[in-house]
Each structure stands twice: as structure tokens, then as C-alpha cells.
């Protein structure tokens, strides 16, 4: 029912809040309208076209994949071009023969464009990477899910060397982590173990801020603290001389304040009064590792 779906949306929102995330991509079958407007505590972006998977034999305007969103891949991509908005698809997710051909099939049908966000891209070769780079596509790397599902990580080093815009996401809660912070840490470990060299926390930070904003074509609104941008930001505990390391190593406990649209939505109760409050709901308080926290709404009352 819409009520249960709305509760699942709300549960997902709190997952993002505890990750210091103020904008999330709604990659589900349901529009955000199933959630009461007053409960939209973070920015839910669903102004994009999407398909779950690509299979070479199912790329046609009349054949629909059983898991599709009702439009063929070609139709969905064409709509994205027409409406000037992103197109997202899971591709090359796995290591079987079929997934190995998916990027080349997308290229054949001219679906590798700057509007395209390719999720996973684990099973890619040098030609695939060239095609992705030449198309100006975006990659969505899901570190925990990639390892959980396939035991491998995408060739992120090659993507970066070709100037491909790489972002980090959590994927489904069934295969990914419970927190974007966990994904950042997993990505850092995977990169070093796979490629034998470190990746900076600053580069990982870009993957969940400016790079992500570019991928969803909102680089003039989010991803930076800048004039005329959304007043969305997080303050976390300072533990080292490198703020990017502090962010990557953060968790729900270390979030001092999370601000969305200039309003306090989560953080330490001791500083909550320094910011405007969310007007349409009450706040709850609880203790996390002995630290008193305050959060918008009643997350403890969510029952699905």
C-alpha cells in the first residue's frame, strides 16, 4: 500500500540523515509523492529517467524487461535527452558473458551520453572505458555492493585516469551498506587493495558532493557551500588536521549538525538552538554513545 511505501521512504530518509546526506536519488519504482510532503526532511531527487538493467537481447522499443519501469531503455534515454535530465541504468554488474557486452551494446544504440549514469560497471575492458569516457558518461560506484555481489571492485583507477565523472552510492540496502560513510571507507580500502596505491579522502569526498551534483545535472544547486546554492551542509567532529579524513571516518555519532535548507534536522542537542528548526514537525531526542542527539520527527515510531 502507499502507506507502507511511504513508511519505507521515511525509513530511507533517516538512513540518509544518519549519513549526513541531504540529497538522495530516488531510484525506486515509486514517486516521492507517496511520502507526505511535510515529511520530506531531505531533498529527494526523482527528476530523471531510469531502467534497472540492460540485456542485449531486450534492447528494443517494443520489448520490455520484466523488471523495467514501463519504458524500454531507448525510450527512457530519449525522454531524458528531450527533457534535459539524467538517465540512470545498472550496467556491467557481474562477471558473466552477458554483462561483458552491455557497455558495447549501449554504445551501439548511442545511449552513452553526458546524461547517462552507469551504476556499477564492474565487468568492463579498455574499450568499454574508452566508450564511456568518449560519451561523457557518469559512473556510480557502490563499493560495498560490488564486493558483496561479485567479490570485485570496478576499475576505478582507469575511470579516473580517463577523466570520467565517478560518484559513490550505497545501492540497495540488501547488498550495500547502511551508511554512505561506510561506502567511503570501503572505497578507500578497496582502491588501495586493488590498485596498490592510496586514494585521497578529498577525492572520495568529491564523489559524494560535486561529482554527484554534476551527474544529476544539479551542479548549480548542490554539492558546494556557495552563494545561491541550497543551504545544505554538515558539521562533524574534528579529530585530525585533515578535514576530509575526518569526514570519511565519521558516523552518526560524530555529526555535530546536519542542516538542510538552512534548518537543523539532526545533530547534537546542545547546539540545536543555534539554527532555525524544521517548522512542520516536532523533534525527538535520544542518546548515542552517551551523547544527546536531536532529530526532526519521531524515527522511533516508524513501523513497516
Provide tags for this entry.
five-stranded parallel sheet; 304 residues; 12 strands; alpha/beta; five-stranded antiparallel sheet
Protein described:
It is a single chain. By secondary structure, the chain is an alpha/beta fold. Helix content is 32%, strand content 19%. The protein has 11 helices and 12 strands. The protein has helices spanning 2-17, 73-83, 97-100, 102-108, 126-135, 143-150, 156-161, 180-195, 201-207, 210-215, 243-248, and strands at residues 23-25, 43-45, 49-53, 87-91, 116-120, 138-141, 165-168, 233-236, 255-260, 263-268, 283-288, 291-296. The strands form 3 sheets. Strands 3-4-5-6-7 form a 5-stranded parallel sheet. Strand 11 (283-288) and strand 12 form a beta hairpin. The protein is globular. The termini are close together. Residues 56-70 have low confidence and may be disordered.
Amino acid at each position: 500500500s502507499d502507506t507502507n511505501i511511504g513508511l519505507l521512504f521515511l525509513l530511507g530518509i533517516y538512513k540518509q540523515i544518519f549519513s549526513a546526506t541531504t540529497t538522495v536519488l530516488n531510484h525506486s519504482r515509486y514517486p516521492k509523492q507517496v511520502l507526505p510532503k511535510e515529511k520530506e526532511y531531505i531533498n529527494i531527487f526523482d527528476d530523471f529517467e531510469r531502467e534497472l538493467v540492460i540485456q542485449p537481447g531486450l534492447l528494443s522499443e517494443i520489448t520490455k524487461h520484466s523488471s523495467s519501469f514501463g519504458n524500454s531503455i531507448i525510450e527512457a534515454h530519449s525522454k531524458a535527452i528531450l527533457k534535459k535530465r539524467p538517465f540512470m541504468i545498472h550496467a556491467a554488474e557481474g562477471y558473466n558473458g552477458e554483462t561483458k557486452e552491455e557497455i558495447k551494446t549501449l554504445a551501439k544504440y548511442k545511449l552513452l551520453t553526458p546524461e547517462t549514469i552507469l551504476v556499477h560497471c564492474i565487468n568492463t575492458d579498455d574499450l568499454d572505458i574508452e566508450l564511456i569516457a568518449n560519451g561523457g558518461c557518469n559512473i556510480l560506484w557502490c563499493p560495498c555492493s560490488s564486493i558483496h555481489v561479485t567479490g570485485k571492485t570496478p576499475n576505478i583507477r582507469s575511470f579516473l585516469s580517463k577523466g570520467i565523472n565517478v560518484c559513490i552510492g550505497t545501492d540497495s540496502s540488501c547488498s550495500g551498506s547502511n551508511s554512505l560513510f561506510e561506502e567511503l571507507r570501503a572505497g578507500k580500502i578497496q582502491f588501495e587493495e586493488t590498485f596498490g596505491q592510496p586514494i585521497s579522502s578529498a577525492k572520495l569526498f568529491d564523489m559524494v558532493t560535486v561529482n554527484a551534483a554534476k551527474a544529476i545535472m544539479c551542479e548549480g544547486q548542490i554539492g558546494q557551500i556557495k552563494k545561491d546554492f541550497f543551504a545544505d551542509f554538515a558539521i562533524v567532529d574534528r579529530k585530525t588536521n585533515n578535514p576530509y579524513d575526518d569526514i570519511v571516518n565519521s558516523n552518526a555519532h560524530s555529526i555535530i549538525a546536519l542542516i538542510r535548507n538552512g534548518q537543523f534536522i539532526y545533530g547534537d542537542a546542545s547546539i540545536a538552538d543555534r539554527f532555525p528548526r524544521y517548522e512542520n514537525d516536532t523533534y525527538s531526542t535520544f542518546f548515542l554513545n552517551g551523547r544527546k542527539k536531536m532529530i526532526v520527527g519521531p524515527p522511533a515510531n516508524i513501523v513497516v
